[in-house]
User: Fold these one by one.
Assistant:
Number 1:
Amino acid sequence: MSRLAGVSRMTVSRVLSDPELVLPTTRDKVLKAVADLGYVPDKTAGSLSSRRTGFIALMLPTLTNANFAAVAHGLTEALREANYHLLIAYTDYDMAEEERQLLNLLARRPEAIVLTGAMHRRNASRMLMAADVPVVEIADLPSQPIEHAIGFSNYQVGRTAARYLLDRGFTRIGAIAASPEGEVTDHRGEERMRGFEEELRLARRSTDGVLRHGTAPVSFHHGAAAFRALVERQPDIEAIFAVSDLSAVGAVMEAQRMNLRIPDDISIMGFGDFEIGREINPALTTIHVDFHALGLRTGKMLVDLLASDATPAPSTLDVGLRIVERASVKDR
Amino acid sequence: MSRLAGVSRMTVSRVLSDPELVLPTTRDKVLKAVADLGYVPDKTAGSLSSRRTGFIALMLPTLTNANFAAVAHGLTEALREANYHLLIAYTDYDMAEEERQLLNLLARRPEAIVLTGAMHRRNASRMLMAADVPVVEIADLPSQPIEHAIGFSNYQVGRTAARYLLDRGFTRIGAIAASPEGEVTDHRGEERMRGFEEELRLARRSTDGVLRHGTAPVSFHHGAAAFRALVERQPDIEAIFAVSDLSAVGAVMEAQRMNLRIPDDISIMGFGDFEIGREINPALTTIHVDFHALGLRTGKMLVDLLASDATPAPSTLDVGLRIVERASVKDR
DNA sequence: CTGAAAGCGCTTACAG
DNA sequence: CTGAAAGCGCTTACAG
C-alpha cells in the first residue's frame, strides 16, 4: 500500500487519521492509492498500538423490545460524531448470561461499558468495578451504582401508577406482571411492582389484586393471560396497572374478547409508552420514559468523558417520567 | 500474569485456549493466577496475531423491528457454540449509511458478513465482492447474489397475497406501503408491492387501489394514515394487503375508529406475523416467515463454512413462506 | 512535512 | 509438555 503511493507507512496513517498534517500533493497520492487498492486499514492493529479500540460496550436484556432498541439507536447517534462503535450483547434477562457476556465484552477492550442497571451477579459487579473504563448503568437508578447512572426509578414508576389510580377514586386496584424466577427475572419490572404494592399499602388498600403470573419477559400474550386470570379471580376489580404497555395492550385485547368495556368496566394503564399503545382503541394511558433520549444522553456523556483526561466523580442522572393520560382509565 | 503463575506467556495462552495440552499441575497454577488477577486476555491482540477476530458482521435496516431483532437473536444462538460474536450495524433503511457502516465493519476484519440483501450501492457491492470473507445476504433472494443468500422472495410474498385475495373472490383489491424515496427506501417492502401489482395485472384487475404513502419504515401510525387515505379515495374497496403487519394492525385500529367492521366491511391482511397481529380483534391474517430460524440457519451455515478450509460454491436457500389464516379476511 | 525504530499483547511455528 | 523467537499491522514518540 505505502509502496504504491511511494511514501512510508506512517504517511498513510497520517493521511487517514489527520490529513491536515500532510502536504496536499502527497495526500492526493496516498488517497489515490487507497482508492485504487480499496485499502481499508485494520482497526484491530490500530486498536492494539493506540490502545484505543473505539468500542463502547452495550449490554441489554433483549433486542426484541422497542424501548431497548431505542436506547441503542440513541447511543449510536451520539457516538457517531466521535467515531465510536457500539458492541452490543444481550442477556435474555438471565444474570448468568450477563456475566458470560461481560467477559466477552471485556476481552474486546471497550473504552466504556453501558448496561441496564441495578442488579448484577456478585462476580459481574466485581469485574465491572475492576474495569478501568467508565461504567454507566442505565434504565434504573441503583441504590449503589457501580459508577455512573442515567435512568429513572422503576420503584417510583410503580408508586406513581398506584397514586394515579388511587387519586381517581378506585378502591379495588390490581396489577399484572411476570413472576421472578431465579436468574431469569425482569428486575426492573419487579421494582415497579414493589413500588406499586408499597403505595397501595401506604393507602391501606389491599394488594390482593396484584398478580405475578408466568415468566419474564412479558408480552402481549402474557398480558392477555394474566388479565384473564386476574379478572376470574377478582371479578370486581376496577383498575389494573400492567408492568409494561405490552401486557397492557394484551389485557385490553383480552378484555374486548371477554366483552368487558375499557374503561367503563375496567380501567387499564401501562408503562413504557410503546407505539402500539397510542394506536389501540381506547388509546392506552401509560407512563412515559424517553428511552431514545436516555441513549442519546448516555452517549453524549461518554463522548465528553472520554475526550477529557480527568476522571470525573460518579454521577447519577434521573431522566424522570411522566404520565400520559389517554382513554383507557376511567375519568370519574 | 505469567510471572505470577511462574510459567511463560505461551503456557498461559495454551491453558486458556486448549487446556488439554497442559499438565494439570501447571494448568491449576495458571488458572489460580488468572482468578487472582481477574485476568481477561486481550482479544484485540489475539485477533491480530491469529488473524481471526471471531467477529461476524451483521447489517440490518433497523433494530426497532421485532423480525430483524429475531434474526439477530437466532444468529447469536447459532454462533455461541463456536464462540463467534456478532458485530451489529444498522442503516435506518438508508443506502448511503449502509455503505458507511460497511466500511466500519470491514475495518474490524469480521470473518463473515451478513446483510439484508438484494439492494446495495454500487460501491458497497464492490467492497463486498472484494472482501475475502463469506458474504451472505438474508431476508430476500437477490437475482444476482453477491455470494450466498438465505431468505425468501418478497416479490412472491406480494404475489401470494394478491392471489389469496383474488381466490376469495374479491374484485376491488388494494394495498398500502411507504413510497420509495431515493436512498431511504424499504426495498424489500417495495418488492412485495411489485409482486402484488403484477398478480393483479395478470388477473386483469385494476391496481388503482395500490397506495404508496409517507416514508419508510412503516409503522402502526403509518398504516392507520394510509388506510384512511385509501378508503377515502376508494370507499368501495373490499380487501387490502398491508406491506407489513405493523401497518395492517394500524389499519385495523383506524377501521375501528371509522366504524368499519373488519372483515365484514373490509378485509385486511399483512405480512410478517408479528406478535401483535395474533392478539388484536379480529386476529390478523398474514404471511409468515420464520425470521428466528432464518438467523439460526445463517449462523449454522457460517459455523460450518468457517470450520472447513474449502471455499464452497455460492449457495441460495429459500426458507419459504406460508399464509396464516386468521379472522381479518372475510370468508366468502 | 516525512520517516525509522520500537512496541502494543497476543499466537504461530518451531525447537527441545 | 513447555518455552524463546518472530511477527500480526498498525500508532506513538522521536528525530531530522
Number 2:
Amino acid sequence: MLNPTESLATAPMLSGSERLWATSVVRDLAFLLARANALSLAQANAAAATHGLKVRSYTVLAIAVSDTRPTQRELAEFLRLDPSQIVALVDELESRALVRREPDPSDRRANVVVATDEGRATYASAHATVADSERAIFAALSAEERTTLMEMLRRLAGAPDALSA
Amino acid sequence: MLNPTESLATAPMLSGSERLWATSVVRDLAFLLARANALSLAQANAAAATHGLKVRSYTVLAIAVSDTRPTQRELAEFLRLDPSQIVALVDELESRALVRREPDPSDRRANVVVATDEGRATYASAHATVADSERAIFAALSAEERTTLMEMLRRLAGAPDALSA
DNA sequence: TCCACTTTATTGAGATTGTCAATAGTTACT
DNA sequence: AGTAACTATTGACAATCTCAATAAAGTGGA
C-alpha cells in the first residue's frame, strides 16, 4: 500500500496539482472541453502573436480572406461576439491595412469586410505558423481520431447539416 | 427558382450568418473547439446562475467537495488561473459559507480549501441542474460518441496517463 | 406618402476577467 | 545563520464582456 501522496518509481514527478485529476470534474465533458480549449487557445495565440495577431483578429482575417464578403453583423453572429467588438476588431485590422470596409450594395446600412492584398499575404504566413502550432497539440490524436473529433465538434458547435453538403 | 435569401419549407431558415460555415476556419479543430466550448460554457453558466454560481465558482466548489483538500496554488495550477484569481474566487465562496480556508498542516504558508456542509448541499443541487443542462448540449452525440470524445479531450487536456488508473 | 418599428454600425459606460509586480510570512538549502 | 524560492494576498492596469443610446437606413402597414 502506498501513501496517497506517494507513488511508484515510474510516476512522472507529480507537479503538485496532478492529484486533482482524481476529482469528479474531470469526468465532466464541459470541463474537459474548456481545458482542452484553453490549451489550444494559448498555443494559437502565441503562434498568431508572431505575426502581430490574436486568434480573434486572425479568425476575422481568415474569414475576410475567404471572399465571403460578410457584413459586420454576420461576423458578430457567427463568432458569437457583440457587434461593438467587431467594430474594434475591424478597426484594428483596417488601421493595419489588412482589411477594408466596403459598402454593402444591397443594404446601405451595412459594411462588408474584405481582405487587402497585404491582408492575404500576412494571413498566408500567419496561417502556416498557426496551423503548425496546432499540429503540435492535436498530435495527441491519430489522423482518424482527429477526423472523428472534427465531426463531433461540428455537431456540438451547431454547424448546419454536417452530413449533406 | 428561389431568391437566394429564400429557402424551401424544410430548410432551417438560414439565420443570416449560416453561409459563413463555408469558410475555411470551420475546418480548423481549434476553431470548432472554441465554438463548442463557448456554447457549452454559456449553457453551464446559465444553469449555475440559478444557484448563484458561475462555472468558475461551481468548479472550485466541486473540487472542494471532493475532499482532495487542495491548496490555492494547486487550484491555480489545475484550473490554469492566476493565484490572485483564486483568492477572489475562494473569498466569494467563503463569504457565502460554502467553503472554508484551513491551514495546511504540512506547510504553514498554504491554505487548504474545504467545503462546508452548506457548500455540499448547494453543490448537490447545482450539480443536478448543471449536469442536466449539459445533457441537453451533448445530446447531439450518442453515448459511445460521448465516451470517445471524453477520452480524446482528456488527452488534449493533458490528463496524466488516461490509460492506466 | 407618412408613420411607426426594426435593423446596422458605432460610441461609450461599467462590470468582469486577465496579467503582472510587490510584499509578508514561511520553507528549503547550504 | 543566511540566501533563495514559494504561498497567499493586494493593488494596478489592460483586455474583454455586456448593455444602453444613437444616427442612418430599411420595412411594412394605414
Number 3:
Amino acid sequence: MTGKKSPWNDLGEFIRAQRELANLSLRQLAEMTKVSNPYLSQVERGLYKPSAEVLKSIAGALQISAETMYNQAGLLDDDAGTKGHDAGRVEQAIHGDSRLSKDQKDTLLRIYRGFIERP
Amino acid sequence: MTGKKSPWNDLGEFIRAQRELANLSLRQLAEMTKVSNPYLSQVERGLYKPSAEVLKSIAGALQISAETMYNQAGLLDDDAGTKGHDAGRVEQAIHGDSRLSKDQKDTLLRIYRGFIERP
DNA sequence: AGCATCTGCTTGGTATACTTAGCACGCATC
DNA sequence: GATGCGTGCTAAGTATACCAAGCAGATGCT
C-alpha cells in the first residue's frame, strides 16, 4: 500500500480537507452524519467509495451543497447541463418547477418524450 | 411480500416507466448500461436501491439527466438551488430544445401554461 | 408439431459498503 | 508517576449491491 493510489483518493482528500477546515474531528463528523468514525477515516484515506447517501450526509454536515459533493465524486458532470446539450434540460426544468403537480409533470414529460422520439 | 411496499418502489416504477416509454427491453437496457438485466428487474420492482453510478448509467441510457434521476432517488433536493427561479425555466428550456419543432414547442408551452394557471 | 429467439424473473454466489469492539497514541490533570 | 479523555485507526463481522447461470413463458418461423 506504499504510495498506492485508489480511484477515490481525491474524494477522500477533499472530504478530509473540508472537515479540517470546519475544525471537526472524525468522531464529531460521525455523530453529525450518523456514519461510523472508522468508516469515515477509511473513506478519507481512499479505501472505500461511499454511497451517495453518505456523501449527502457528509455534505450537509460540512455545509457543502450535495451537487458540489457529487461533482467531486464524479457522480455529476458540472458541465453536463450547460454544454449545449439539450438532453435533460427540459426534463430537469419540468421536475424542478414547484408549481406543477406530480401528475402534471408526468404528463408534460410523456408528451415531451413522445415528441423527441418521433419528430 | 404481498403488496409490501419498499422505500424504493417509486424509483423503480419511475425507471420502468421511462424504459417502457423508450421502448427498451430489460436486456437492451442492460447492454446499454452494463448492468445485469436481473438486477435491473429487481431495481424496477423496488427490491434494491441502486448506487448513484448505476442510476447515472441508467439515466444516460434513457436520456434523462443525472440530476433528474438523483432527484427521483431522493439524492438531490430539486428545490435546493433553484428556489425562486422556477419562473421561465421550463419555457426557456422548451424554447432552447433543438429537437423540438416550432409546433411541438407551441403545444408544450400551451399545455404547460394551462397547468400553471389552473393548478 | 419442433425449434429459435426474445422476454422477465429466480436463485445462489461474490464483492463492497459500513459497523462494532477495541487498540495505541497524545494531551491534560492530579 | 497514574488516570481520564480525545483522537485516528485496525480487524472481524454484517448487510446490501450486483452478478452469473438458468428457468419459464411468449412469439415467430419452418
